[in-house]
Design a protein that fits this description.
Blueprint lengths: L1 E4 L6 E4 L3 H6 L1 H14 L1 E4 L6 H9 L19 E4 L13 H8 L14 E10 L7 E5 H7 L2 H8 L2 E4 L1 H6 L8 H6 L3 E4 L1 E3 L6 E3 L5 E4 L4 H15 L5 E4 L6 E5 L3 E5 L9 E8 L6 H4 L2 H6 L1
Parallel strand pairs: 2-3
Antiparallel strand pairs: 1-2, 3-13, 4-15, 5-13, 5-15, 6-12, 6-14, 7-8, 7-11, 9-10
The chain binds fe (ii) ion (FE2).
């Protein structure tokens, strides 16, 4: 397996690995897992991928999420990201699918608004537009390490509230449906997620984050905005240009990402599987109950 660096201090392409091998060979899994912990974003090119092989690969990393209410693929282990309507045609710009796609273009980490946040997301390209439609990543681990030590210490003991309806309201006030709001109440997580394998902390931020626990709302929002700006500063991102056969996986504990626009009349179809974080991934250390446990 060759590891080729892609981004500024994070993200790597793994060459000489078939994702099918990861599911069938524990030594291959161990090598990929070590690269995942270190590089945060992994790219596999020229893969033969379908839903079954993607899910088998993803399951190696932990329990797969069941897709939430209101998303394409609800009730399955797959999230279908597309702007193709039921009639097979690309939907108009004011269609819910198009608006959701715009929300996906805000910097975020997947599933921070869920009761169990995600360790990793695995995304495969099925239909790609001729240009645009890239996925852009930043390392919130490197962003955290760029901060002043005093601010780092403060953030390690701070908690932020995440709400799906908040990120969607930045695109349209009613984009999160009543069913989604009921199913997805706000969640509170430590602002720094420490990787239990290498001990490195990462800012745990997203477009879903709207408040800091115990902070006056305006001051909390201002700090979140400043941290988001610092984490996404120019020159810190890796932009993945999709090719047919690509699979990209990322560490939701240590990165943020956003979709990039593409010509609205062109089809794009991506399939995501998402793996929930477990205690081995540091889940308990970001839970607010860890505060009480320490007291
Ligand atoms: Fe995402």
């Amino acid at each position: 397996m060759d590891i080729i660096s892609l981004g500024p201090g994070f993200a790597a392409e793994l060459r000489g690995v078939r994702v099918a091998e990861v599911a069938s060979d524990t030594a291959v899994y161990s090598a990929v897992r070590a690269a995942f912990e270190k590089h945060s974003v992994l790219v596999f090119r020229d893969q033969d991928v379908d839903d079954d092989s993607q899910l088998a690969f993803s399951r190696c990393f932990g329990p797969p999420e069941v897709t939430k209410v209101g998303s394409q693929g609800t009730g399955t282990h797959f999230v279908i990201l597309s702007t193709i309507g039921e009639d097979g045609k690309v939907v108009p710009a004011d269609h819910r699918l198009a608006l959701r796609n715009r929300a996906n273009q805000l910097w975020h980490t997947d599933s921070s608004f869920k009761k169990i946040p995600a360790l990793t997301s695995v995304l495969s390209a099925r239909i790609i537009p001729a240009r645009g439609g890239e996925t852009e990543f930043v390392s919130t681990r490197l962003a955290f390490e760029r901060l002043e030590p005093r601010l780092r210490a403060k953030l390690e003991n701070s908690f932020a509230w995440h709400d799906y309806a908040h990120s969607r309201s930045q695109i349209a006030p009613d984009l999160a449906s009543p069913e989604e709001r009921a199913a997805l109440p706000p969640q509170c997580w430590r602002l720094v997620w420490k990787n239990p394998v290498n001990g490195r902390g990462a800012l745990y931020l997203a477009s879903h984050a709207y408040a800091i626990e115990g902070m006056e709302p305006t001051a909390g929002k201002k700090l979140l905005d400043e941290l988001m700006a610092a984490a996404t500063a120019p020159g810190t991102s890796y932009v993945h240009s999709w090719r047919s056969g690509d699979i990209v996986m990322w560490d939701n504990r240590a990165t943020m990402h956003r979709g990039r626009p593409w010509p609205a009349h062109e089809a794009r179809l991506m399939v995501r599987t998402t793996i929930s974080a477990t205690a081995a991934d540091g889940l308990e250390t970001v839970s607010p109950s860890s505060l009480h446990a320490a007291e």
